[in-house]
Amino acid sequence: MNGENARGESVVDARVGEENAAEENTASGLATPGETQAGTIRRGAGMRLRAIARAYLVVLLIPILILVFSLLAPSTFATLGTAQTLLTTNAALLILAVGQTFVLAVGEFDLSFAGLVGMSGCLMVAFHVPVGTALIVSLAAVLVTGLANAAFVVLLGVNSLIATLGMSTVTTGIALAATSSQTVPNPYGGFGKFINYRIGGVGITFYIALAGILILWGVLERTRLGRKAYFVGSGRKAAAYAGIRVNRIRTLAFIISAFTSWLAGLFLFGQSGSADATFGTGYLLTVIAAVFLGYTAIKPGRYNALGSLVGMLVLAVGTTGIEVLAAPIWLTDVFSGSILFVAVALANVLGSVQGLKALRSVID
Fold it and tell me: Looking at the domain assignment, is residue 26 inside a domain?
């Protein structure tokens, strides 16, 4: 068994080495037979520019949006207070993006997070127990749900999109039952103070979410687990033949997703001062849009942590700017939906050979 694992790890390392070599060759523009040195330099420069454009095109949306909204509302948007509020209020979005990035990296979907966010807070107030016990009960229920998702998808072979969407409905029902379909005030004053504690004017929840993104980056980019996760996402059968425990990694992905959903639920529970079963509903498409947008940034064609951070910031700046301008509420939904549409289109282009050829033909 150890021999199989060692062989699997060597195959993964070799696969990653080949990908890195291909990226280096693309960036440097290796000479073809008969090509002059000047031609090689020009071709290499062109390839580097295209690689930079692909990686940072979405990143440029952040300063562009900031500039636009600052010009439109200089006295309200272009302030330190707005920036601090933007980061604090989008901490739940960022921590949810952590879990969904890992799930998508292994080739699965988990839409149950929308229901788990609400259930996490509702279970905190359902049993009238001390805060420590409430946290344990809430976390245990969420992790069991994550394992149930894994059982349906990994063991029974149910499509992850369908299984987790159904689970989201189930967890929302549990949350409604726990609160009798009411919005229940947070009875734990100390917990609320901790969640709303600010460092440099920014809520501690944002720093927790940012730490989650950095941990995810370290796992995906610097560990064997991350390389195996990407290998599983690119082809389960090939990964299994290489000796990788595919089902274990897929199960881990659903557990991580459930845990980040629990954290997001606690963030919203503490920030709002109440428990509501529908807290996660508004995050369903927003989180998916952020992660898909991140798929096109930093490392295009690969779900990555820093890309998801970029995607979150694009959505956060856009929606905050629209709110500051006192625009109609429907415009926020239009913006988020448009970003999702564009993100999926770009993901399709950057994730396929035909799409890349079409993109290159346009750039050239």
Answer: no
**Cβ–Cβ contacts within 10 Å for residue 288, how many?**
23
Residue 240 lies in a domain: yes
Are the beta carbons of 316 and 90 closer than 8 angstroms?
yes
Residue 210, domain extent = 2-14+53-363
Query: Is 33 inside any structural domain?
Result: no
Nearest to 206 by CA among 120, 40, 333, 95: 95
Q: DSSP code of 284?
A: H
136-185 per-position pLDDT tens digit: 999 999 999 999 999 999 999 999 999 999 999 999 999 999 999 999 99
CATH number of residue 334's parent domain: 1.10.3470
Cross-strand bridge partners of residue 203:
198
Q: What is the mean pLDDT of residues 284-302?
A: 90
Q: For residue 197, how far is the Cα from the chain centroid?
A: 24
Query: Residue 28's pLDDT is what?
Result: 45
Has this prediction a pTM greater than 0.70? yes
Domains in the chain, number: 1
For the CA atoms of the chain, what is the radius of gyration? Answer: 22
For 233, how many CA atoms within 13 A lie in the half-sphere containing its CB? 22
